[in-house]
Amino acid sequence: MNPSSQVALVTGANKGIGKAIAEGLAKQGIIVLIGSRNAERGAVAAAELAQEGIVHSLQLDVTDASSIQAAAEHIAAQYGKLDILINNAGTNVSRNKPGVATLEEFREVYETNVFGVVAVTNALLPLLRQAPAARIVNISSLRGSLGAEGAFTGQPSISYSSSKTALNALTVHYARELADTPIKVNAGAPGHVATDFNGHSGTRTPEEGAAIAIHLATLDENGPTGGFFDDKGPIAW
Ligand code: NAP
Description:
Oligomer: single chain
Radius of gyration: 17 Å
Number of strands: 8
Bound molecules: NADP nicotinamide-adenine-dinucleotide phosphate
Low-confidence stretches: none
CATH architecture: 3-Layer(aba) Sandwich
Strand order of the largest sheet: 3-2-1-4-5-6-7-8
Number of domains: 1
Number of helices: 6
CATH superfamily: NAD(P)-binding Rossmann-like Domain
CATH class: Alpha Beta
Helix content: 40-55%
Mean pLDDT: 97
Strand content: 5-15%
CATH topology: Rossmann fold
């Protein structure tokens, strides 16, 4: 590997917005690792993106400690650093409202959307610190906002929405913890994107949804940290 090459890991990148983020980063000459809990699906996605740049598949289930550890060891052995971590893997198991959603539902959603992000980020922080100026991007949602217009319209799922609120809080905590390093940590909202996640009901393409993550992943030293953004700018917490 050319020592100046940047290395990025995108979790849940075998399809949807994550795959589009991987494509966008690869097109910029960044070595991209497609995190996929199913190794076969990851390999297929990596092969599909092979013409865009250097793309490799990496088995990674963000809810599985041994999978996370193996992924971190692989990155350490192959590259010795990680320049970009995109915490994109996410799930929404129901559209249940308050008073209906069960603890099992909360646990399942938080396991991926919140605890998975903590586990992956903590496992990879030593490698992110080895990069000259790493970027961490948490893929959040307008649904995670408590104050933005539209955050509570429709039928928001309490488990999903609150998991993204928690993810926003994590973003600020990590940014503060890392404030005396070159590492920047931000949350990005992709908008309503047509993917398997919503039965392709979204109005935006995965490429449009990926744009904010790619922007936050490639911020220069003057860029913000500890913020929550979409394509139009900062979003109310
Ligand atoms: P998607 O097409 O369903 O893709 C979700 C990805 O996450 C898949 O690759 C999935 O893997 C992976 N994943 C789920 N659980 C995982 C786990 N435990 N370990 C590793 N990977 C896991 O959904 P998407 O729309 O691209 O969503 C990507 C992110 O954007 C999510 O965080 C979502 O909350 C956020 N978001 C989406 C929208 C939207 O309108 N689509 C709006 C706001 C925010 P499998 O293929 O194995 O299931």
